Amino acid sequence: MKHIFFVAFASVLTVTACQPVQSTQKSSSVASEKAAAANVEAKPGVEKGAVSAAQKARLADRVTFIDEYAADGKPTLSKAEFDAARATRLKEMDSNKNGVVDTQEYADEYATRLEKKISAERKAQVDQTVIRFGAVDKNRDGKITLDEFQASGARIFDFLDKQKTGVIAANTAESTAASTSRSVLAMPDTHSVKGFLEIYDVDGDNKVTRVEFEQHRKAQFEATDANRDGYVNTEEYLLEFENRLDRQIKQARESQVKQAHVRFKSLDTNKDLALSLQEFNTSGDRIFTGWDVNGDGIVDVTDPLPEPKPRAQKPDEQGDKKSQDASTAEKVKTEKPASSKAY
Fold it and tell me: Of 153, 152, 145, whose CA–CA distance to 215 is shortest?
């Protein structure tokens, strides 16, 4: 039995740094992006909260992009700065100094940057877990009782079950302005129906009743109460979460490094198993152009945001909907990921 535990409303702090950048450098672009976010207006006929949530996510991504490549810490990035930073990165990838980058050098450089993001996000999530413990421990006695734990669970269920049906299902209506936080670990949470079902839909039938939820929560509590004293203390709470988090980190690390090798093959257009600056720049040009919507050669907070690209439907996603639902249910049942939350 997987000891998936405690899911909270509090958002995990988003880790956006992809390169070492001084905090003083980040502050200017972050502040400018926040100012831009405050001026975001909903399109006519569209729910304002939903548009704002989607645009705030892209604003955060733009912060990441600018901070990753800008040399002066300003909330702007020119194409010349971007090209220079990319050239430097490729040169640093070339560990054997033979003028080109092979697939292992490419993956190793990515893995180094990935570890920095994982380390920062792990710390942020553990810090949030301590805060969440205090939120569940209503009487502040340093222990969570089953009643306190189930009360926090009720808040989770009610947050999504706005129609008071007593069931959270795949078709449960929810606000389209759901959480937009980015996570390198890609762990589900209960900000959305999808995340809730990934965590609590143990039998894979695409729904969770309140009774099922409460029974599962009780089992979670008992599994985490390591010394069987009827309470969950801070140490037990953190130990369970950190063990689960580290399992997810291992999976994310292996998956994302594997994807780095896949990306290398895509970048290596002449298939000579060596990445040249020209090939690397071809990819970089697409990235920069995607953010430089007005085509002035500079990415900054006054640029219009790129429209989200519609998700292309894969061939195996077409056809009979019942078959799709059955396949999805089986995948959820056999590949249930860990949760990033701890309430």
Answer: 153
Do 54 and 101 contact (CB within 8 A), yes or no? Answer: no
- pTM to 2 decimal places: 0.69
Contacts of 147 (CB under 8 A, 6+ apart): none
Please enumerate in sequence order all residues whose Cβ is within 8 A of that of 278, keeping only pairs 6 or more positions apart, or say none. Answer: none
Q: What CA–CA distance (Å, rounded) separates 146 from 113?
A: 41
Burial of 82 per CB tally in 10 Å (0-12, 13-18, 19+): buried
Q: How many other C-beta atoms can be found within 10 angstroms of the C-beta atom of residue 147?
A: 9
pLDDT band at residue 325 using 50, 70 and 90 as cut-offs: very low
The token duo for 128 is: 């949030």
SS3 of the chain: helix, strand, coil, percent, to 5 = 55, 5, 40
CA dist., res. 5 & res. 9, Å (int) = 13
- 């920069």: which residue's tokens? 288
